[in-house]
Amino acid sequence: MKGTRLGTLLATLGGLTLFVGTAAAQPSTTAELINQLNDRLLYIGVPITLLVEVILIYTVLNFKDADEAKPTRENRRLEITWTVATAIILLFVGVASYGVLAHEDVTYTGDEIAPNESDVHVQADAYQWNWEMNYPEENVSALTAGDVELAQADGVEGPVIVLPADRDVYISVTSQDVIHALHVPDMGLKQDAVPGQTNTIKTHTLDTGVYQGYCAEYCGVAHSQMYFSVVVVPQDDYQSFLSNQNATSANASA
Ligand SMILES: [Cu+2]
Fold first, then answer.
1. Same domain, 174 and 221
2. Is residue 44 located within the same domain as residue 161?
3. Residue 205: which of 172, 233, 171, 166 has the closest Cα?
4. Which residues contact 128 (CB under 8 A, 6 or more apart)?
5. Are residues 154 and 243 in the same domain?
6. Are 202 and 105 in contact (CB under 8 A)?
């Protein structure tokens, strides 16, 4: 009777964790991969935590009045069970984590930057204390919010990265002075900005929206002001943004 009740409780709580998952739309495949892994590990972690707590409470209540500890008897079946169960759990965690950590949208190790014509390549240069965002292949340079006239960009301040939705995006990150770090939490993007070195990350944009970026490496007194924004817009808007920027820079140089 006791066992059935315990089983029901664990099954109910385990079922509840299924609803913890983030079903919300994701800004990028990188965020999607990371959040999915987080959810999967929760499905394992929450039931194990509950199981351990239930055993702990049961043991405390049941044996609190025991005078003397009795030696445990060998139970081979139990030992084999927990060894195999642990191995299965570790295997699941290992395989699930490897699938995400080795994905190129999470850890980009390729040599080629923006190999396809539809890919977007952004050069993000950090310096004390701001960012300079350039599009080396598009002849568009040093974007600040004032340059960008997009409906979605309302209220956006500081440097911006404008990206089309549903495209492969490569961001090359470097620094002009000390170590900084590019971080866009909602999109699951983070990369160190190291002077004299360029680190490239890759992602695939999904939903349109404005996502806040930060410098994630303490770099001096105005570190906290190193904001930037990533604005993901429909592909048509991105094309008109590029032609506007090109026209502006052509006028400026004329
Ligand atoms: Cu910084």
1. yes
2. no
3. 166
4. 177, 178, 219, 220, 222
5. yes
6. yes
Counting the structural domains of the chain, the total is 2
Task: Give distance in angstroms: CA of 120 to centre of ligand 1.
Answer: 24
Kindly give the distance from the C-alpha atom of residue 226 to the centroid of ligand 1, in angstroms, as a whole number.
Answer: 6
For residue 128, report the distance from its CA to the centre of ligand 1, in Å: 6
Both 246 and 128 in one domain: the answer is: yes
CA of 216 relative to ligand 1 center, distance in Å: 7
If asked whether residues 166 and 241 sit together in one domain, one would say yes
Residue type, 4: T
How far apart are the C-alpha atoms of 172 and 161, rounded to whole Å? 12
Instruction: State if pTM tops 0.85.
Output: no
Residue 247 located in a structural domain: yes
Give the β-pairing of 180-184 and 189-193: antiparallel
User: How many whole angstroms from 225 Cα to the centroid of ligand 1?
Assistant: 9
pLDDT digits (tens, 9 = 90+) for 169-184: 999 999 999 999 999 9
CA of 227 to the centre of ligand 1 (A): 9
Structural domain containing residue 21: 2-101
How far apart are the CA of 178 and the centre of ligand 1, in A?
A: 8
Query: How far, in Å, from the CA of 155 to the mean position of ligand 1?
Result: 22
List, for residues 112-171, the tens digit of each pLDDT value.
888 888 899 999 999 998 999 988 888 777 666 666 665 455 667 778 899 999 999 999
Distance 156 CA to ligand 1 centre (A): 19
68-120 per-position pLDDT tens digit: 878 888 899 999 999 999 999 999 999 999 999 999 999 998 888 888 888 99
